[in-house]
């Protein structure tokens, strides 16, 4: 007998709901099978904590006296985007500090960027706000330098256009030189491999066809409450999938939003990737209502049953060529060694498994305590049948059709 | 027999002396140089593993101290800042001795200072700069 989200919420309110983490669900399904697990378990919590570059925060500083149309804004010398109303700005995680040598001293260190500003704000640190403007009759001020705290500004909203990638590449380097990527430093001649997923705890791997998660879904975000607002950029649901509907390559993504003021610094951490840049490690957790046997089965998928593609990052990835190394499982990745063309390659992760467990446990406790209720999506995310496909950019001349429109 | 690892800082005037030779010859020590940065007329630093009988080791260290060499045990040289560490393990793939490794199956990242040779590869492999070192 299938359950509904409303019924599960009623059980949560009565303190009767059975909630387990996605890691625990692996054992439940292994022991009892998916049909019995669906009867037994009401909610499965997931978690992930890793670098998610497409992250940032919308801020409203309020007006100084006299008022100012902040045309350029820097926070601790990291520029924020201001092509918005007078005292609004968006600080992006990968924006670098003014004067950062970048990769001119290769490989660059990238010690501080927008991600670190966001962390400092959430940690309650004072951040230097500097701004310049051309001045208008209504907004005459032309220069500003002051200090702000998160608690002192009007709004601070974390708004991340692409988080929570459903599955991700395992990065290796087949060339003779080290390469520095957003997936870490890769040693030459397949010297090491990096992966970046919580595997059996990862939110979108446990509901692979987005049956319970959509626009409006409440989530655990950065230690506070957040919501899914849209599919993320590069959402690519149409990729090849296995018999459980799990994508074999990176696929779905989420756009998420939440009030930065109620988040916690340990779950939004600025990171520096040598030779690449800065990024923000973001903590996200979801609660999957176990409505039927199908959802129990996918929520109970183990690291042995989840696979990731091995992608070569010195030539294949940058030049859009197919990588020849096939795939591996998360169980193999977590063992510390994978085998590629007969060579044993040590693996390590950019995504924190213990932190993912902690998120799933925190969310479980919140649900037990009746503090986190499940949501019915307002609209679904585009699924495998939607026809939505991630397109490469074609570099081309302007078309004649468009030139005609100039006349 | 015991093995200990040290970070030695040599004063500029001793940089050109055959100090390691004396350790072998006079004190019957098996030295293993893990890392060294020695330049003429400048202060030098060395990460050194010493293997020998306890009394010989003590005498060898006294000899080094007599030369004005600053001796620090290696464990203090590289440290994991637990507050900054996000437990991802990006460092583990780079650590040549397994001093940084996952504790399976929970995948907690642990730092075993006894295995550390202060190569400092972890310093830049770490995403949050949680590994701190002084030897450069």
What would you say this structure looks like, in words?
The complex is a heterodimer of chains A (407) and B (136). By secondary structure, chain A is of the alpha+beta class. Chain A has helices at residues 5-13, 22-40, 114-122, 203-206, 293-299, 330-335, 353-368, 400-404; strands at 19-21, 43-45, 48-51, 56-60, 72-75, 78-80, 88-92, 127-132, 143-148, 155-163, 170-172, 179-181, 184-186, 193-195, 214-215, 218-221, 224-231, 254-259, 268-273, 277-285, 287-289, 307-312, 327-329, 337-340, 343-349, 379-380. In chain A, the strands form 7 sheets. In chain A, strands 3, 4, 7, 10, 16, 17, 18, 19 and 20 form a 9-stranded antiparallel sheet that branches. A 4-stranded antiparallel sheet of chain A has the order 6-5-8-9. A 3-stranded mixed sheet of chain A has the order 1-2-21. In chain A, a hairpin with a 2-residue loop joins β5 and β6. The N and C termini of chain A lie far apart (65 Å). Chain B has 136 residues and is an alpha+beta fold. Chain B has 2 domains: 2-75, Alpha-Beta Plaits (2-Layer Sandwich), CATH 3.30.70; 79-133, Alpha-Beta Plaits (2-Layer Sandwich). Helices cover 20% and strands 32% of the residues of chain B. Chain B has helices at residues 19-27, 54-66, 121-125; strands spanning 2-10, 30-37, 44-52, 70-73, 78-80, 100-103, 108-111, 131-133. In chain B, α1 packs antiparallel against α2 (54-66). The two termini of chain B are 30 Å apart. The interface between A and B is medium-sized, with 31 and 21 residues.
């Amino acid at each position: 007998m299938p359950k509904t989200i409303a019924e599960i919420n009623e059980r949560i309110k009565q303190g009767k709901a059975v909630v387990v983490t996605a890691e625990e669900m692996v054992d439940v399904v292994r022991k009892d099978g998916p049909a019995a697990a669906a009867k037994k378990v009401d909610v499965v919590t997931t978690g992930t904590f890793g670098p998610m570059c497409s992250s940032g925060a919308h801020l409203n500083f309020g007006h100084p006296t006299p008022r100012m149309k902040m045309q350029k804004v820097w926070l601790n010398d990291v520029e924020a985007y201001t092509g918005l109303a007078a005292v609004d700005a968006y600080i992006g995680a990968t924006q670098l500090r003014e004067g950062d040598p970048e990769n001119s001293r290769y490989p660059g260190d990238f010690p501080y960027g927008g991600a670190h500003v966001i962390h400092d704000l959430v940690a309650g640190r004072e951040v230097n706000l500097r701004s310049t403007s051309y001045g208008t009759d209504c907004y005459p001020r032309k220069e500003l330098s002051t200090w702000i705290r998160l608690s002192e500004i009007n709004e601070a909203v974390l708004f991340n256009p692409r988080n929570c990638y459903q599955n991700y590449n395992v990065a290796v380097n087949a060339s003779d030189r080290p390469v520095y990527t957003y997936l870490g430093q890769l040693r030459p001649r397949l010297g090491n491999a990096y992966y970046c997923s919580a595997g059996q705890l990862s939110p979108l791997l446990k509901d692979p066809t987005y049956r319970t998660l959509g626009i409006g879904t409440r989530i655990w975000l950065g230690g506070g409450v957040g919501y899914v607002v849209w599919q993320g950029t590069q959402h690519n649901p149409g990729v090849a999938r296995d018999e459980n509907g799990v994508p074999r390559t990176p696929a779905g993504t989420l756009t998420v939003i939440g009030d930065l003021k109620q988040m916690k610094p340990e779950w939004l951490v600025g990171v520096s990737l040598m030779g690449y840049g800065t990024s923000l490690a973001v903590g996200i957790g979801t609660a999957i209502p176990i409505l039927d046997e199908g959802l129990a089965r996918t929520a109970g998928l183990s690291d042995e049953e989840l696979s990731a593609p091995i992608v070569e990052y010195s030539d294949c990835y940058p030049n859009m060529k197919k990588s020849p190394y096939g795939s591996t499982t998360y169980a193999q990745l977590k063992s510390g060694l994978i085998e590629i063309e007969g060579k044993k390659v040590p693996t390590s992760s950019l995504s924190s498994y213990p932190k993912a467990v902690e998120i799933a446990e925190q969310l479980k406790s919140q649900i037990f305590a009746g503090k986190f209720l499940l949501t019915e999506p307002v609209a679904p995310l585009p699924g495998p049948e939607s026809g939505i496909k991630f397109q490469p950019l074609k570099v081309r001349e302007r078309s004649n059709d468009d030139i005609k429109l100039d006349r | 027999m015991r093995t200990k690892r040290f970070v030695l800082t040599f004063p500029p005037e001793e940089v050109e002396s055959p100090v390691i030779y004396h350790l072998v010859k006079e004190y019957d020590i098996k030295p293993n140089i893990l890392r060294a940065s020695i330049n003429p007329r400048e202060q030098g630093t060395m990460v050194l593993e010493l293997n020998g009988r306890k009394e010989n080791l003590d005498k060898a260290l006294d000899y080094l101290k007599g030369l004005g060499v600053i001796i620090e045990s290696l464990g203090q040289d590289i440290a994991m800042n637990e507050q900054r560490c996000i437990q991802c393990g990006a460092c583990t793939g780079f650590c040549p001795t397994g001093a940084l490794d996952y504790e399976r199956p929970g995948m907690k990242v642990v730092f075993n200072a006894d295995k550390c040779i202060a190569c400092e590869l972890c310093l830049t492999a770490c995403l949050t700069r949680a590994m701190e070192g002084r030897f450069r």
